[in-house]
Task: inverse folding
């Protein structure tokens, strides 16, 4: 995959997750992504989790394969350096707000066909982050144990992840148009809109508009049959999305006849996912004993060769990183030798690469634009 | 944004969430995305949630702006129709497995510069879905109430969403290279790898490799200060990512002096996010009374003009869809008049459009390739 986006250059002024992920995704596909930070780094420089050295594992995770330039954002001369970098690259990705000199108007005055993507919190430009957007979009009140009263916030910052990937899509789409028709683009991407659009795309908003209130159903699958089951040495998630999956599940667990009898008693048609969902608790009760008296290894052996979808619940420390073709050993400055992911888009050539050290490429990038980093450093404009 | 991807055509053979979202994202940017389904529809045709008519709100949500063609996948003649559509479009997006005639090898024999993106469950090609991948990637065991023993699965299929957006990125990147260098691409995108890469990008896997076990901390923000608080008429999520956020929060709630005193007693430096995180329970206890004796309106008024990040927890039915520039009223066949989202990438021109009816464009699409749908229909090849 290396080199697929060869020749594409992006200047990124970013922090935290969404914008850095957007840029990193393009870097992992071969684009030259220059993350420009203020002297000393942006607000995410020491974001947890941290390595023993204090290096942020979030920062190194989110900036793999980029070049790093640091400039004094407070000095007019430093801003001029960023403006020149942006004008040269022609594409700017940022989640910085309140900095007019980084906005579309200021930068497109220097580069008329600029592509500028601004990630913001809300459509009115006000601030919001993944964890606040998540609260107000609806999911925390339908997630978690049935008997739990309060909201369950997510730990995975799913909106930031989706937002970063939307940003990558938006930049590639705009660049395609510019390559054909010459025009630049001003794109705004509110994190709140990413969440609202996703809730709409998945049917949650249409359902609510039709007057249905989504219930909190714990680890059951909505609208089909799926649930977690305890096994002798752990816990597994089991999903039957289709009738074939469900039939296989009933047969391998030996409850096919009992389930058929239950269907007759309840006048339910278990070949339809709606009935499998409505009677999920009865069905789960029939299945649970089979899982309870088996180990993970027993379950794996029994379900192999069937269509049943299942997986054990695991801790992060239990994942098989050595066995994954996605994960490569890298030497990450500030962290050491660790396995890190490449991009999941696999063309047979993907390789994980480390994140840079902060400011590692300041001299080289400035030199490529004919600027003298040493001279700027003497005046405190770069570090 | 309409028309940004004008001239791009994609044939999508898909089901459920990831692949349909990938295609829809490109359709929402102006690509001509032709979703080809078997006669009667794919496995997601009646996926919940459902409208009273039985129309799937997931299906209509995931296929907005596409054209729909239905063909008999079991007949050689039907497969030939799909092959011709794929060869004409030059780009295929699919999550169908076990269908060799839809694979890269078969289709690139007809269209050598084909771009083919195959979404699969695991890197070895075996099946997996969002809910099973989620179980085995680590998040459910660190999500949810601190005193809850079991896993908490997510309700938002975040891996499917990320996977669909990665697919859109991959197709645009490959098409950019083809436009410049002429070569096609075979891309595989395992859902499991999407989840593993994301866990890695966010630092969870590096943290685990360094021997740290991520704790379950309920609705607290990891590595900073953030938590949910009860207010008189609801519940809010409050986040202080930076020292400025935290200082504002302490000042507006009148606990600045008490917090300073607490810092002295604990020898903690609350200008550092690590110490705000370590002492989160003590800090939250100081803040909780301020929230408890206020209404949502009080909180909104008090926090306006500060940098504090916050939002009320809401149900899907409580979202302000009328006030959102993202949501447009559409007439959705099978559903009626509802508000649906446009794409969150905003260039000032975004508009939501409905999903097609199943097979709505069979005749028009076949005619554009010089095929006679009536004649094929008479033989049962199309419906």
Result:
């Amino acid at each position: 995959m290396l080199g697929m986006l060869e020749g594409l250059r992006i200047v990124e002024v970013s922090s935290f997750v969404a914008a850095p992920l957007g840029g990193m995704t393009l870097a992992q596909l071969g684009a030259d992504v220059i993350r420009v930070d203020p002297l000393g780094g942006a607000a995410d420089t020491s974001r947890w989790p941290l390595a023993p050295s204090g290096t942020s594992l979030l920062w190194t995770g989110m900036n793999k394969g980029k070049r790093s330039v640091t400039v004094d954002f407070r000095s007019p001369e430093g801003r001029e350096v960023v403006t020149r970098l942006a004008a040269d690259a022609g594409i700017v990705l940022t989640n910085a707000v309140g900095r007019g000199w980084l906005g579309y108007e200021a930068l497109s005055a220097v580069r008329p066909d600029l592509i500028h993507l601004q990630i913001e919190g809300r459509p009115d430009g006000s601030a919001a982050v993944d964890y606040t957007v998540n609260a107000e979009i609806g999911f925390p009140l339908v997630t978690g144990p049935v008997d739990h009263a309060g909201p369950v916030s997510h730990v995975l910052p799913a909106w930031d992840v989706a937002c970063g990937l939307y940003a990558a899509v938006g930049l590639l789409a705009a660049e395609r148009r510019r390559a054909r028709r010459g025009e630049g683009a001003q794109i705004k991407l509110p994190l709140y809109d990413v969440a609202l659009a996703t809730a709409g795309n998945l049917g949650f908003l249409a359902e609510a508009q039709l007057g249905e209130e989504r219930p909190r159903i714990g680890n059951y699958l909505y609208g089909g049959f799926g649930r977690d089951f305890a096994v002798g040495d752990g816990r597994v998630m089991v999903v039957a999305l289709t009738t074939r999956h469900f039939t296989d599940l009933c047969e391998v667990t030996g409850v096919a006849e009992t389930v058929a009898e239950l269907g007759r008693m309840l006048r339910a048609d278990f070949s339809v996912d709606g009935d499998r969902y409505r009677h999920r608790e009865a069905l789960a009760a029939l299945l649970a004993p089979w899982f309870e008296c088996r180990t993970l290894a027993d379950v794996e052996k029994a379900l192999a060769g069937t269509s049943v979808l299942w997986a054990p619940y695991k801790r992060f420390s239990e994942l098989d990183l050595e066995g994954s073709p996605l994960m490569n050993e890298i030497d990450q400055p500030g962290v050491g030798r660790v396995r890190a992911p490449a991009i999941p888009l696999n063309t047979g050539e993907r390789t994980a690469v480390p994140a840079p050290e902060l400011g590692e490429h300041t001299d080289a990038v400035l030199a490529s634009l004919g600027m003298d980093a040493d001279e700027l450093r003497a005046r405190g404009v770069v570090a």
